[in-house]
C-alpha cells in the first residue's frame, strides 16, 4: 500500500469557514440572521462576508494578521466570524465588558492590526488605544455604527462598517488556509483569574468542535438559535459557524434581559439557546414567569450547575443539556449524554444526574481524571478526586507568546485542565472544583461546588459561592458568600444559612462563615470571580472560634 498517501485530492485543509459557502447554496433563501426589524438570508450573509473580506484585503490585511472585534451579539459580529478569516486573518473577539486597561493589554499582546468597534464601545476602545506606548504602532479602527449606517467619523477611525461593506467585491476569492493547523482564532481566557491568556485555535480544531457540538447536541437543520451566549466568549462555543452548517436562523439580541428572552422565544419560535448556569438562574427568577408553550433546548456549560437550578429550569419547559469545555478546547467537549431509562427517574434524581458533566465527545480522543503526583488514573468510584485531562483534535494549538505556559498545560500527551473531578463507575465525569478552589480543612479535602449545590437548594438563596478562609486551627474553613432572591419576605440571617447547611451536609463541610451580599462578582460570561472572593475571605483573617 505504499502508493496510498495524502494528496491534494484527499487532504484539503478543513475549515469551518466553508460552512457558509455551502449554506448559501443549500439554504440561500432561508433566514440566516434576524435582528430587530432586519432579516437577512444565507445568500445575503455570504455575499456580505465576501464584501467585508475583500475590503480587508484591499486595506492590506493579509494572512496571519490579527483583526479584533469589540461588539455584542449583532449581525456584524456574526458576519466577522467568517469575513475576517476569509481575508486570511486571525479572528480575535474581545470581551466588550472588560475595562479599558485590560482591553489595551489584550490588543497589544495580540498585535492587532485592525479593530472593529461597536458604537457603544467607542469611548472604551479609544481610551484603551490611548494607553498604548508612543513607540508601539496603534491598530486602525473601523466603527460599527448603529444599524451599520455611515456617519461622520472621528479622525482615528479609517472607515465605518457600512463603507467597508459598500466597497467590497461580492465575487472575492476568499483566502483558504494553507494548512489546517493554521491559526483561525485568538481568544483570551475569561478572567476567573487575574491573568487572561491568549488561546490560539486552528482551522482544523474549530471545524471539529463545531461539527462535534452539532452532533452531540443533535441540532437539526434550520434550527432557530437565540444568541444569549456572547459571541465573544469562545466564539459562542463554536455555534457561530455551526449554525451555518445546518442552515439555522441566528436571532441576535444586543443585550441579555430575562424578560426580553422570553419575548424573543415566543416571537421567533426559538428552538435552541446556550448559557452559563447563571443564565438559567436568571431565567427561573423572573417574577410571574409562565411555562413555555413549546420546549426550548438550552445548553449550559462553564461551571457545574446546581441540581436545584436545573430542576427549576426544566419545570418552566426548557430541555436542559449539560456539557463542559474551556477556552482551550474551543467549545463543549464533554457532554452529559442522556439515557432514555433516566426519564423514568424522579425529578430530583434526574437533576442530580444531569448536573454531571458526562462523557467525552467523539472529537476528543481520550478523557481521564488523574492523580497529578503519580500520573495514574484515579478510582472510578465517584469519590476519589483527580485532575481532568484531555487529548484530541479540539485542543488548542497553545498560548500566544507563552511557551512556558503552553508547556505547563500540555505535557505527557495530555492537556491539563486545572479542574478537579471524580469519575463515576459508569464512566461519567463530575466536576468538583477548580484545583485552586478545593478547600483543605483539618486534612479533609472538600468540594466548594458540593457546598454551593446545597446552598442553592435554600428557597431564599439566589446565588452562592464558597471559598477557603484561613484558619489557625483547621488550616482552612469554608466561607460562603450568598445573595438572596428579590422579594423574599423572610430573609434568612447568616446563622440561619449555617443551620440549613448543618442539617444537610457533614459537619466538616458546613461553612463556618456566611457573608450575605447584594451581588456576587462575575466575569462578563457569568462566571463567579472566586479570586475576588478568596481575597475578601483572606482579608477577614482567622476567626477565634474555630476550635469550638
Task: Kindly describe this structure.
InterPro entries: AMP-bd_C, AMP-bd_C_sf, AMP-binding_CS, AMP-dep_synth/lig_dom, ANL_N_sf. Residues 450-527 form the AMP-binding enzyme C-terminal domain. This is 2-methylpropanoate--CoA ligase ccl4. Pfam families: AMP-binding (PF00501), AMP-binding_C (PF13193). Belongs to the ATP-dependent AMP-binding enzyme family. The protein has 548 residues and is α/β, with parallel strands linked by helices. Among the domains are: 43-202, Rossmann fold (3-Layer(aba) Sandwich), CATH 3.40.50.980; 438-540, ANL, C-terminal domain (GMP Synthetase, Chain A, domain 3). 29% of the residues lie in helices and 25% in strands. It is built from 17 helices and 27 strands. Strands 2-1-11-10-12-13-14-15-16 form a nine-stranded mixed β-sheet, sandwiched between helices. Helix 12 (307-315) crosses helix 13. The radius of gyration is 24 Å and the shape is globular. The protein starts with 17 loop residues before the first helix and ends in an 8-residue tail after the last helix. The mean pLDDT is 91.
Counted by DSSP, the helix tally is 17
Radius of gyration, whole Å: 24 Å
**How much helix, percentage-wise, in residues?**
25-40%
Point out poorly predicted stretches.
Answer: none
Keywords: Ligase, Phenylpropanoid metabolism
GO molecular function, one term: (E)-caffeate-CoA ligase activity
GO biological process, one term: phenylpropanoid metabolic process
Pfam family, one: AMP-binding_C
Amino acid at each position: 500500500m505504499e502508493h496510498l498517501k495524502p494528496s491534494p485530492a484527499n487532504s484539503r485543509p478543513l475549515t469551518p469557514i466553508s460552512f457558509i459557502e455551502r449554506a448559501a447554496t443549500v439554504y440561500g433563501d432561508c433566514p440566516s440572521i434576524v435582528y430587530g426589524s432586519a432579516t437577512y438570508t444565507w445568500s445575503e450573509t455570504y455575499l456580505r462576508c465576501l464584501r467585508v473580506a475583500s475590503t480587508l484585503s484591499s486595506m492590506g490585511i493579509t494572512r496571519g494578521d490579527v483583526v479584533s472585534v469589540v461588539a455584542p451579539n449583532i449581525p456584524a459580529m456574526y458576519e466577522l466570524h467568517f469575513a475576517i478569516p476569509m481575508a486570511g486573518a486571525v479572528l480575535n473577539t474581545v470581551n466588550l465588558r472588560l475595562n479599558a486597561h485590560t482591553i489595551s493589554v489584550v490588543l497589544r499582546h495580540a498585535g492587532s492590526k485592525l479593530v472593529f468597534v461597536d458604537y457603544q464601545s467607542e469611548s472604551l476602545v479609544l481610551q484603551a488605544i490611548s494607553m498604548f506606548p508612543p513607540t508601539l504602532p496603534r491598530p486602525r479602527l473601523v466603527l460599527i455604527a448603529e444599524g451599520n449606517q455611515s456617519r461622520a467619523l472621528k479622525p482615528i477611525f479609517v472607515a465605518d462598517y457600512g463603507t467597508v461593506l459598500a466597497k467590497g467585491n461580492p465575487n472575492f476569492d476568499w483566502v483558504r488556509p494553507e494548512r489546517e493547523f493554521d491559526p483561525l482564532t485568538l481568544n483570551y481566557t475569561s478572567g476567573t483569574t487575574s491573568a487572561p491568556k491568549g488561546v490560539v485555535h486552528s482551522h482544523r480544531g474549530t471545524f471539529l468542535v463545531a461539527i462535534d457540538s452539532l452532533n452531540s447536541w443533535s441540532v437539526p437543520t434550520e434550527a432557530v438559535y437565540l444568541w444569549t451566549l456572547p459571541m465573544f466568549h469562545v466564539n459562542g462555543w463554536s455555534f457561530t459557524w455551526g449554525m451555518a452548517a445546518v442552515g439555522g436562523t441566528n436571532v441576535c439580541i444586543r443585550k441579555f434581559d430575562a424578560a426580553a428572552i422570553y419575548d424573543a422565544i415566543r416571537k421567533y419560535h426559538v428552538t435552541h439557546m446556550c448559557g452559563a448556569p447563571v443564565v438559567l438562574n436568571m431565567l427561573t427568577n423572573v417574577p410571574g414567569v409562565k411555562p413555555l408553550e413549546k420546549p426550548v433546548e438550552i445548553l449550559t456549560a462553564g461551571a457545574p450547575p446546581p441540581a436545584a437550578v436545573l430542576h427549576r429550569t426544566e419545570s418552566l419547559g426548557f430541555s436542559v443539556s449539560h456539557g463542559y469545555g474551556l477556552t482551550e478546547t474551543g467549545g463543549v467537549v464533554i457532554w452529559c449524554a442522556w439515557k432514555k431509562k433516566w426519564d423514568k427517574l424522579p425529578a430530583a434524581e434526574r437533576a442530580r444526574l444531569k448536573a454531571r458533566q458526562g462523557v467525552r465527545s467523539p472529537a476528543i480522543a481520550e478523557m481521564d481524571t488523574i492523580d497529578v503526583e503519580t500520573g495514574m488514573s484515579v478510582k472510578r468510584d465517584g469519590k476519589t478526586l483527580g485532575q481532568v485531562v484531555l487529548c484530541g483534535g479540539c485542543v488548542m494549538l497553545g498560548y500566544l507568546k507563552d511557551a512556558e505556559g503552553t508547556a505547563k498545560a500540555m505535557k505527557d500527551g495530555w492537556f491539563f485542565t486545572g479542574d478537579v473531578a471524580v469519575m463515576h463507575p459508569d464512566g461519567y465525569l463530575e466536576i468538583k472544583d477548580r484545583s485552586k478552589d478545593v478547600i483543605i480543612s483539618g486534612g479533609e479535602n472538600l468540594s466548594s461546588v458540593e457546598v454551593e449545590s446545597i446552598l442553592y437548594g435554600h428557597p431564599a438563596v439566589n446565588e452562592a459561592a464558597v471559598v477557603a478562609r484561613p484558619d489557625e486551627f483547621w488550616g482552612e474553613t469554608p466561607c460562603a458568600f450568598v445573595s438572596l432572591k428579590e422579594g423574599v419576605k423572610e430573609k434568612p440571617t447568616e446563622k440561619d444559612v449555617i443551620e440549613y447547611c448543618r442539617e444537610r451536609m457533614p459537619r466538616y463541610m458546613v461553612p463556618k462563615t456566611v457573608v450575605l451580599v447584594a451581588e456576587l462578582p462575575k466575569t462578563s460570561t457569568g462566571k463567579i470571580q472566586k479570586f475576588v472572593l478568596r481575597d475578601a475571605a483572606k482579608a477577614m483573617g482567622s476567626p477565634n472560634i474555630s476550635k469550638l
